[in-house]
Amino acid sequence: MNYGLVNAIIAYIMWGVLPLYWKLFNDVPAGEILSHRVVWSFVFMGILVAVQRRWGDMKRIAASRALLLPLAASGLLIAANWLIFIWAVNNGHVVETSLGYYLNPLLNVLLAVVFLREKPNRGQWLAIAIAGAAVLIIAIDYGRFPWVAISLAASFGLYGFAKKKIVQDASVGLLSETAVVLPVALGYWIYLAAAGKTTAWTLPASTFVELLLSGVVTALPLLFFARAAARMALSALGFVQYIGPTIMLLLSIFVFKESVSPVLLVGFALIWTSLVVYAVASVRGTRLAKAS
After folding, report:
1. Are the C-beta atoms of residues 75 and 180 closer than 8 Å to each other?
2. I need a surface site. Which of 91, 102, 179, 233 has the fewest CB within 10 A?
3. Helix or strand or coil: residue 54?
4. 125: nearest Cα among 288, 274, 283
């Protein structure tokens, strides 16, 4: 559990600061950035798996429908999440991306209760109720249906659930996920070249090198997340996730200068309160379980 918690904290800090990285490519369409992200993630993970000498595991996955199908599903889910996130950041919706990742823990708890039969205690249910009320306040204040936030929460929540169902080494699993969407990414490259719409290949050399590093930037937090997901309850993992959107919210206010209403800040304060309540309830629940 402690090892899983450390990995989760590292992953969410990395994800929290990612908007700073994607802002470097404001002039590149989101779909093209995604295609590069997929390709260079595959290349990076391929090198890592080769160094680890685990290509035999890849062959075993390719030959097993029971392993291949859930990995294909998780690959499609995370690719969808990447596309929505990149588009939102580069179109001035960092606050809404933050809201999306605040919503995600609520979905994690729902999935954990319905499908994994995890049973939150009373204090944890109180925290969930506070967070749910906060999200409702934020959504009403936002003034329109937050489709970016809902899409991000749903895609990443289902991705986390899929990772809980896959018993696989983190490196091999991530390589398999990127391999699923690699043909689509390469096909999109061919389409852009044929239509004369390529943008990334015309970037300055230094900026293009930064884009090449998107494979590393993408893979590292996912590796830490996979290790965390294998060792933590899904509901607990979801609440640690508040680290990421809190960093995003601070960036949106102080770096990207997005407008944030007082009601929105009240909603976020309630969410942080729910996190404290959930943490305290979890600690007490663990102590009672040990005492019994």
Report:
1. yes
2. 91
3. coil
4. 274
Nearest to 231 by CA among 159, 164, 160, 162: 164
Sequence-ordered list of residues with C-beta below 8 angstroms from that of 23, at least 6 positions apart, any chain: 89, 90, 256
Residues 6+ apart with CB under 8 A from 22: 33, 85, 86, 89, 90
Dist. CA 292–CA 281, nearest whole Å: 16
Q: Which two tokens stand for residue 96?
A: 């809404």
- Sign of the four-CA dihedral 292, 288, 108, 110: positive
Residue 104's closest CA among 159, 154, 161?
154
Give the C-alpha separation, 184 to 192, whole Å: 12
- Distance CA(157)–CA(284), nearest Å, equals 26
In this prediction the pTM is 0.85
- For the stretch 151-192, pLDDT in tens is 999 998 898 888 777 767 778 888 999 999 999 999 999 999
Tell me how many helices (H) and strands (E) the chain has: 13, 0
Q: With helix as H, strand as E and coil as C, how does 72-125 read?
A: HHHHHHHHHHHHHHHHHHHCCCHHHHHHHHHHHHHHHHHHHHHHCCCCCCHHHH
Residue 150 to residues 82, 139, 145, 263: CA-CA distances in angstroms?
14, 10, 9, 19
Alpha helices by DSSP H, 169-261: 170-195, 205-212, 214-229, 234-240, 243-254
Q: Cα–Cα distance between 29 and 32 in angstroms, integer?
A: 5
